[in-house]
């Protein structure tokens, strides 16, 4: 209806889950990392728990998780958990395509068939994952039966891994004393909270860009009101934003201000008011009418024939819309090869740009010295080379050098930012945005990066070591993954620290091997909040 009016290809705020519109806030990335760690090699199997209020993105995260599981994974997805133990086992067997024609209705026959399947899957190198949505609706008996299924194990792992998705009531259910055995088997748990005000704006801008929008329509105050009315819940954000866009379209406005958001919230969220008890509702209506009459009485009288002067359109906060002082140009993907060839193969300009982003002084390192990328450029200044995916670099969150290859030549670019559709690069003397898919066609994963840390750090921190470097590592692990501090004695990299390192590595897309090498040190340094970071919203 309004797509042409706003210059969109498709509706940006549909409440139907669509992987193309996925927006991962910091807490969503943390949740995904915890789930991957719990279901992956770090957790050793058992149960993984994800809770959150309605509309906070649990199902979306579950889909992302399933997409990132290894190819040799069999998945049983239970969407209706209101079943008795026998019905639940029948559903699981159907999802895994286990033939139980002769065993329906028999708990023992179903369990035996499922156990045989799990043993055969393990022999074939398959991983089996059971996902139960709306798990807060499971009966205690059904939960206990699922726990018994996870008793089948090898010396190193469970043969069935279970992901429980549910509303906050699931946490209360699992806290019951008669379910303590199950609770003790949960290897990873995460509670999703709503988006904050800054994330709400980033969420709106992200979906607008994916839908093909160019000029963001919502004013600053409108975004603030959307966050206030929705409480940061993505589903409610979509509902209010969609209604506000429709109101702007009806009134032929391309900029959507506070007025249309307030109207949208009244219309879309009105059922909240209608659920008030009738006596309270009557009191509120009476108060509202009295206030309206008092306001009308105080307004100055105006001749009916005298039209009110037209007010200049402006945001309700009295501040004109902010205009970017230095817009970043867009480079079509088809023009990227020519830009690569024009930049030339020498990496020195890109290194100079990267050193400048880190405010490296002349006495610390030069671009010529950085080209060799020794692990320690100077005390407290580190360098690393490697191969990575773009998602991994985004998770690390630092600018990086990328070696781009086009037919006839290559060049080094500086990665400055990335979102779902575009990347921001510095190449050949200037910045520009281009299509993420286009850049992927000219980049094979080679990258280089620099970072700052304490002068006492080396290129790695060996397991079992102690000293200032270990103290620095453990401090950041406590901040980032909530690792408990040592009870007494000197801090050392023990087994619990190794588990925390693996969690941090999974959160940043690194191999969860527990080894604290250059990439892990870079990930740890990003928790300090100092130095340049990648832009994650390219508007």
UniProtKB/TrEMBL annotation:
One of its GO terms (molecular function) is ATP hydrolysis activity. It comes from Arenimonas fontis. It holds the Pfam family PG_binding_1. This is AAA family ATPase. CDD domains: AAA. Residues 44-187 form the AAA+ ATPase domain. Gene3D superfamilies: Cysteine proteinases, P-loop containing nucleotide triphosphate hydrolases, PGBD-like superfamily/PGBD.
């Amino acid at each position: 209806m309004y797509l042409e009016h706003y210059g969109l290809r498709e509706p940006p705020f549909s409440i139907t889950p669509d992987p193309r519109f996925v927006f991962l806030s910091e807490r969503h990335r943390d949740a995904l990392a915890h789930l991957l760690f719990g279901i992956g090699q770090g957790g050793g199997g058992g149960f993984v728990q994800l809770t959150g209020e309605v509309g906070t993105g649990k199902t979306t995260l579950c889909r992302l998780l399933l997409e990132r599981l290894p190819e040799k994974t069999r998945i049983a997805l239970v969407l209706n958990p209101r079943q008795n133990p026998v019905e639940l086992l029948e559903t699981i067997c159907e999802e895994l395509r286990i033939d139980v024609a002769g065993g329906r209705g028999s708990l023992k026959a179903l369990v035996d068939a499922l156990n045989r399947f799990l043993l055969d899957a393990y022999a074939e190198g398959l991983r089996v994952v059971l996902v139960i949505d709306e798990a807060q609706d499971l009966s205690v008996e059904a939960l206990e039966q699922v726990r018994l299924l996870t008793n089948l194990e090898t010396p190193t792992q469970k043969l069935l891994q279970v992901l429980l998705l549910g509303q906050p009531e699931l946490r209360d259910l699992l806290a019951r004393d008669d379910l303590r055995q199950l609770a003790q088997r949960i290897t990873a748990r995460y509670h999703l909270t709503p988006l904050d005000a800054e994330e709400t704006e980033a969420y709106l801008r992200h979906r607008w860009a994916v839908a093909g929008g160019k000029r963001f329509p919502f004013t600053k105050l409108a975004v603030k009101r959307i966050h206030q009315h929705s409480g940061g819940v993505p589903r409610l954000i979509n509902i209010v934003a969609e209604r506000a866009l429709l109101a702007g379209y009806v009134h032929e406005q391309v900029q959507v201000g506070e007025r249309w958001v307030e109207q949208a919230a009244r219309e879309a969220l009105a059922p909240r008011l209608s659920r008030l008890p009738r006596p309270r509702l009557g009191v509120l209506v009476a108060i509202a009418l009295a206030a309206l009459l008092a306001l009308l009485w105080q307004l100055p009288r105006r001749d009916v024939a005298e039209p009110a002067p037209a007010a200049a359109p402006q945001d309700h906060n009295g501040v004109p819309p902010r205009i970017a002082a230095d817009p970043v140009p867009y480079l079509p993907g088809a023009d990227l090869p020519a830009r690569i060839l024009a930049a030339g193969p020498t990496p020195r300009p890109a290194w100079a740009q990267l050193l400048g982003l880190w405010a490296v002084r002349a006495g610390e390192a030069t671009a010529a010295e950085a080209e060799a990328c020794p692990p320690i450029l100077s005390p407290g200044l580190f360098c690393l080379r490697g191969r990575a995916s773009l998602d991994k670099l985004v998770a690390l969150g630092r600018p990086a050098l990328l070696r781009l290859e086009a037919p006839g030549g290559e060049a080094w670019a500086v990665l400055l930012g990335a979102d779902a559709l575009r990347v921001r690069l510095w190449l050949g003397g200037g910045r520009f945005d281009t299509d993420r898919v286009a850049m992927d066609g000219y980049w094979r994963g080679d990258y280089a990066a620099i970072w700052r840390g304490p002068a006492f750090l080396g290129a790695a921190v060996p397991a079992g070591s102690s000293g200032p470097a270990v103290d620095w590592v453990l401090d950041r692990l406590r901040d980032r993954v909530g690792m408990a501090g040592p009870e007494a004695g000197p801090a050392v990299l023990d087994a619990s620290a190794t588990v925390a390192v693996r969690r941090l590595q999974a959160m940043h897309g690194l191999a969860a091997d527990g080894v604290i090498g250059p990439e892990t040190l870079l990930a740890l340094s990003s928790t300090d909040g100092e130095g340049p970071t990648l832009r994650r919203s390219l508007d």
